[in-house]
Amino acid sequence: MLSVENLTLHYGASQILHGVSLTARPGAVTAVMGTNGVGKTSLLKAIAGRHPYSGGHITLDGAVLDHLSAAQAARAGIGYVPQGREVFPLLTVTENLETGFACLPKSEHRIPSRIYDLFPVLDQMKDRRGGDLSGGQQQQLAIARALIAKPRVLLLDEPTEGIQPNIIKQIGEVIGLLRDEGEIAIVLVEQYFDFAYGLADDLVVLNRGEVRLSEPAAMVERDRLLREVSI
Q: Residue 140, Cβ neighbours under 10 Å: how many?
């Protein structure tokens, strides 16, 4: 289980997160929701070692992960798919996937067939450069690259942003499959309300850097959640 306790984070003199706490369980999707600018991406960056935080604790299965670098967090089992995907445009699809090997022993430096089972288009385009893929294909590549490292936690930041509906459906199916396998804790930051609500097992709503709601999704009616995320 991923546990975030009383996390505070600043950008210069501005405090972005005010004592944010959440847990993410293996085999569950924890959806973090809220309007733009409430600290959702900052929260994921802190967990992934992409941005320092000023207070609080992060643990995974009881092991303290406080103030790790991005590389250390990845090796500890944190997979991160950032907003904007960060695909290497001049590397091929295969080479982009191989960048995930950095977290693995040499004996495991191979692309599992399962990656192509989840994302068949990547098998078809393995020799194409990342920059030549569509936005939806790049998003699939970014998720697949994170999975190469065999994460215990998968952080997804706006995976549907700017993507055509048929690819959104495919990505939702993959997230659902990963959740049902029960091995990965998934934290989903998402503005597409119905996508997030449809996948969520647990809900966390942020407002001005604070947790406004934290409940099992089954306990939160759609209309109530819509009001909470619209404030």
A: 27
Q: Is the pLDDT of residue 37 over 90?
A: no
Q: Say how far apart CA 164 and CA 76 lie, in whole Å.
A: 33
Are the beta carbons of 7 and 21 closer than 8 angstroms? yes
**Angle at Cα 212 formed by Cα 28 and Cα 13, nearest 5°?**
110
pTM: 0.94
Contact 147, 154 (CB under 8 A): yes
- Per the listing, tokens 């790790």 go with 68
- pLDDT at residue 231 above 80? no
Which residues partner with 14 through β-bridges? 11
Dig out the tokens for 86 from the structure: 């960060």
Token output for 187: 């934290």
* pLDDT above 90 for 108: yes
| Sheet with 55-60, edge to edge strand ranges | 14-24, 2-11, 55-60, 63-64
Nearest to 78 by CA among 185, 202, 157: 185
Nearest Cα to 40, choosing from 27, 51, 54, 28?
A: 51
Q: Quick check: 207 pLDDT over 80?
A: yes
Angle between helix 135-148 and helix 165-181 axes, rounded to 10 deg: 20
**Share of residues in the chain with pLDDT > 90 (%):** 94
Nearest to 21, CA basis, from 207, 224, 229, 204: 204
